[in-house]
Amino acid sequence: MLGVADNYEEACELAEREQSAWVKRRAEPIFYYSGEAPFRAIRDAQRPDQEQTFVASFDTQDELISWLNSQKTS
């Protein structure tokens, strides 16, 4: 269950908050899987007709993970 509301207006507000949180989450950079360097962070496309965006590139997975973690705290 995604959420419960007592009436239509509350349901709309809840849906708006949840959608906003989801869009924000989808905009965060993620690890683009690769077995070897370069290790990249990408931003997934929000729509099927859009392309992924490469955000950053690193020589090691540790550098990438450190960078991704720093993005979550900023």
Mean pLDDT: 91
Number of strands: 3
Structural class: alpha+beta
Query: Could you describe the largest sheet, including whether it forms a barrel?
Result: 3 strands, antiparallel
Helix content: 40-55%
Shape: elongated
User: CA-to-CA gap between the ends?
Assistant: 30 Å
* Widest sheet: strand ordering: 1-2-3
Estimate the strand proportion.
15-25%
- What is the N-to-C order of secondary-structure elements (H for helix, E for strand)? HEEEH
Low-confidence stretches: none
Gyration radius over CA = 17 Å
Number of discrete helical segments: 2
Keywords: Plasmid
Protein name: LexA regulated function
Question: What can you see in these coordinates?
Answer:
This protein has a domain at 28-74. It is built from 2 helices and 3 strands. The radius of gyration is 17 Å and the shape is elongated. Strand 1 (30-32) and strand 2 (39-43) form a beta hairpin. A 3-stranded antiparallel β-sheet has the order 1-2-3. The longest helix is centred in the first third of the chain and has 19 residues, at 8-26. With 74 residues, the protein is of the alpha+beta class.
